[in-house]
Amino acid sequence: MEKLKAKEHQTKEDALKMLKLSRPIEEWLADLNISDAQVDYFKGVLETNRDVRWTFAFVHAPPFYSPMTDKKDPGNFLKIEALLADRPFTIYSAHTHTYHYDQRNGRDYITTATSGAMNVVRPGAMDHVVWVTMTNQGPKIANLLMNGIMDKKGPPEDDDLEAIGLYRPKA
After folding, report:
1. Within-domain flag for 34
2. 66 CB contacts (<8 Å, ≥6 apart)?
């Protein structure tokens, strides 16, 4: 029983440490580097699948946006975009735990927030899943919040997320 109590205490301490580390989470984001080998692999996949209606690319960290800096397009991401240029596509990423929507060259670039992970109240922080419905005109994208629904652009930048109930940390 003592071991369980010690483990519970350790877990609470660890959670508090994580909260401190995540204020703001953007301060410890690393730069992304897409290797030449990854670009070659991506090119091969696109060549093998030329006749698709829509291409969805999923990457862990956003190669097109960092909430920490104005730096855009690190690594070889511009090469990836060039390979996609002649087809309709949407790119999804995560990593930041902060929702961000951008449109570049008429395409959607979406960085998802969390789906229930520990979070800190800040713009773009929300617990959600992304619902994608494919239509003849392309994807229809909606954010299903744990307590509501938002369109693909996510929360307005000037909203106080805690005040409108999108995220309520436990006291």
Report:
1. yes
2. 26, 29, 31, 72, 74, 96
* 62 burial level (CB within 10 Å; 0-12, 13-18, 19+): buried
Range of the domain at 125: 2-151
141, β-bridge pairs: 132
CA distance 100 to 108: 11
What crossing angle do the helices spanning 77-84 and 36-48 adopt, rounded to 10°?
Answer: 10
Order across the sheet with 128-135: list the strands.
Answer: 128-135, 138-145, 148-151
Tokens of 161: 């997320």
169 inside domain: no
| Structural domain count of the chain | 1
The answer to whether residue 163 is domain-embedded is: no
Determine, yes or no, domain membership for 47: yes
CATH number of the domain enclosing 21: 3.30.750
102 vs 97, more confident = 102
Contact 83, 46 (CB under 8 A): yes
The pLDDT tens digits of the residues spanning 109-153 come to 999 988 777 667 777 778 888 999 999 999 999 988 876 667 788
DSSP line for 109-127? EEE--BSSS----STT--B
pLDDT reported for residue 152: 84
